[in-house]
């Protein structure tokens, strides 16, 4: 993620904040400018931007910003919309009368906005789903389990459903351990499910890519239900780490794509953050290359250099975490087979499949 600074005091501000931690000026994300804006309040509904590029332009806070503090995005004052580009995508929220529901909703929206930031940076910003038959629109439903009925996180026809209880840290960590996963986050859920959504778009817009897709991920036309049943009954193949990014990726080509897609997004945003931070890491001169940047990773032409940087960065992140007695920050192995899948994704994102 890019680094942002307060237009009033020039201190760093963060993407999810609603107030500068240094000078306490109100701030918010302006999607049309792809920037965190600093504002002077003329009234509760009219905020004047202080940033040079759009100074004195008037904005209003998203309805969910001003009423529930679960959002921090701004809308041009001239717009007829009450909800920002992010909140328009959410069509169902948890029942706010339920205990902790608003906390869960806030955490879900924070993860969603971080996913959407990267989608916008990659020119893949989804639009709200207008009708059930809208092939390109996207909507989110955040549901709480009720009356003993579970909520299954998943995607179908442009609707992504998330189990809101996943926003409970204890529940999510318990589920991660019980399912034998080495990584489970809200942001990971958003990125994984977006993979299913974007695959549907790719299949419709450029069906000729599916032959190449099958070379890397397998034939997605096989029965999904039977593949999942087989996966949960027998588990992953013993050599799964040589060909897949995770055990779940072994269940079906759709899931292999979604898991690999999520990791591609992890790589892009994390390296973009390192790029804007000016980070550099010296390699050991033999097995570990030095990490340096000759271009922003997002939209970068040299994907081999991007992969080299990622290997060096994650090796050192894991080493630092271990020094603190923590689990690995990136507990995954990128084999050449997995890298080929990532190369396929990067190649066709650059070809503007989704733009």
UniProtKB/TrEMBL annotation:
<feature type="domain" description="Zinc-ribbon">
    <location>
        <begin position="4"/>
        <end position="97"/>
    </location>
</feature>
<dbReference type="Pfam" id="PF15887">
    <property type="entry name" value="Peptidase_Mx"/>
</dbReference>
<protein>
    <recommendedName>
        <fullName>Zinc-ribbon domain-containing protein</fullName>
    </recommendedName>
</protein>
<dbReference type="InterPro" id="IPR011201">
    <property type="entry name" value="Zinc-ribbon_6_bact"/>
</dbReference>
<dbReference type="InterPro" id="IPR031321">
    <property type="entry name" value="UCP012641"/>
</dbReference>
<dbReference type="Pfam" id="PF10005">
    <property type="entry name" value="Zn_ribbon_DZR_6"/>
</dbReference>
